[in-house]
Design brief:
- It is a single chain.
- This protein has about 350 residues and is of the alpha+beta class.
- The protein folds into 3 domains: about 60 residues, Uridine Diphospho-n-acetylenolpyruvylglucosamine Reductase, domain 2 (2-Layer Sandwich), CATH 3.30.43; about 130 residues, Uridine Diphospho-n-acetylenolpyruvylglucosamine Reductase, domain 3, CATH 3.30.465; about 100 residues, UDP-N-acetylenolpyruvoylglucosamine reductase, C-terminal domain (Uridine Diphospho-n-acetylenolpyruvylglucosamine Reductase, domain 1).
- The protein has 9 helices and 20 strands.
- β17 and β18 form a beta hairpin.
- The longest helix is centred in the last third of the chain and has 19 residues.
- It starts with a strand and ends with a strand.
- This is UDP-N-acetylenolpyruvoylglucosamine reductase.
- Its main location: cytoplasm.
- Cell wall formation.
- It catalyses: UDP-N-acetyl-alpha-D-muramate + NADP(+) = UDP-N-acetyl-3-O-(1-carboxyvinyl)-alpha-D-glucosamine + NADPH + H(+).
Length: about 350
């Protein structure tokens, strides 16, 4: 039996640790409870679905219904000689799910260790790190259409994955609630150690027998050295996406800024690290009262305790404007601003 609560604080449910209230709040633990909750919501009433709360910036109270996704469960649903198909419910903690796969010898997710959030949020924004994206291991997902309550399965093609986005952030934004995701993982791993500092960290750790657990441990060590723990300092991880520009524009920037890094992409595109742009614009480590830019990672905006979401939003806009002024590059938030 679901419970409709009123005037509920959302501070425990967002990793920024920002105070905001929901006019109405319903937690659901089964799909039937979700369907029951949807029947209780007026068609014109604002609706927000919360998973781990690691990808939102709350700037004000929410005058509508917040649905808290607490669907749990992990099942091996199929396998062949080379692969396993693993179904995880959308409310599962992402990192704990990755660790579960590693413990069972299912390879493919180890580079995505310690990313905050839930399984359901992972395909929504096609999360990625250290050379791996969700689309590389994704098989399908199930979701409920909010307007009709109908169940629907989506293939990888139907999800329209792009860089940190999917159809659920574009044409279908706010129209579906993801309930479960199926991943196709490998029985025999293909190790991906070339991206970032993974190989150097493995060497530093003295790893000679490479395994998916060793790669996961290295990724965790790197992330912990760079990114603050939301339990200690409120944050949502990387606040901005890495921008993509035309190669000809990149070459022009290199003439003016010789040290600007860039990673070649198909179709004469180049991805620029937003962290580098923000640091060069002078924002790294800056504090403004209760908020600021983290001292170790300029992509991370932080709440030191009693910050306000509207002030973090203002800071983000100022950073965006200064990067555009200095480099002529538009950076966009990865975080959903509410």
């Amino acid at each position: 039996m679901i419970k409709l609560e009123q005037n509920v604080s959302l501070k425990p449910f967002n990793t920024f640790g920002l105070e905001a209230k929901a006019a109405h709040f319903i937690a659901f633990t089964t799909v039937n409870e979700l369907l029951e909750a949807l029947k209780m919501i007026e068609s014109d009433e604002p609706l927000m679905v919360l998973g781990g709360g690691s990808n939102i910036l709350l700037t004000k109270d929410f005058e509508g219904v917040v649905l808290k996704n607490e669907l749990q469960g992990i099942d091996l649903i199929d396998e062949d000689r080379n692969h396993v198909w693993v179904k995880a419910m959308a409310g599962e903690n992402w990192h704990q799910f990755v660790l579960h796969c590693i413990e069972n010898g299912w390879a493919g997710l180890e580079n995505l260790s310690l990313i905050p959030g839930t399984v359901g949020a992972a395909p929504m924004q096609n999360i990625g790190a250290y050379g791996v994206e969700i689309k590389d291991v994704f098989h399908s997902l199930e979701a409920v259409e909010i307007a009709s309550g109908k169940y629907q399965e989506f293939t990888a093609e139907e999800c329209e994955f792009g860089y940190r986005e999917s159809v659920f952030k574009t044409s279908l934004k706010g129209k579906y609630i993801i309930t479960s995701v199926v991943f196709r993982l490998d029985k025999t791993p293909t190790f991906n150690t070339s991206y970032g500092a993974i190989q150097a960290t493995l060497d530093e750790m003295g790893v000679t027998d490479l395994s998916i657990k060793a790669i996961s441990d290295a990724v965790i060590k790197i992330r912990q050295s760079k990114l603050p723990d939301p339990v200690e300092i409120g944050n949502s991880g990387s606040f901005f996406k890495n921008p993509t520009i035309d190669n000809i524009d990149y070459q022009g920037l290199r003439a003016e800024f010789p040290s600007i890094p860039g990673y070649k992409l198909p179709e004469q595109k180049v991805k620029i690290p937003a962290a580098w742009l923000i640091e060069q614009a002078g924002w790294k480590g800056k504090t403004f009262g209760e908020i600021g830019v983290h001292k170790n990672h300029p992509l991370v905006l932080v709440n030191y305790g009693n910050g306000k979401g509207e002030d973090i939003k203002k800071l983000a806009l100022e950073i965006k404007a200064s990067v555009a002024s200095k480099f002529g590059i538009e950076i966009t938030p990865e975080v959903n601003i509410i």
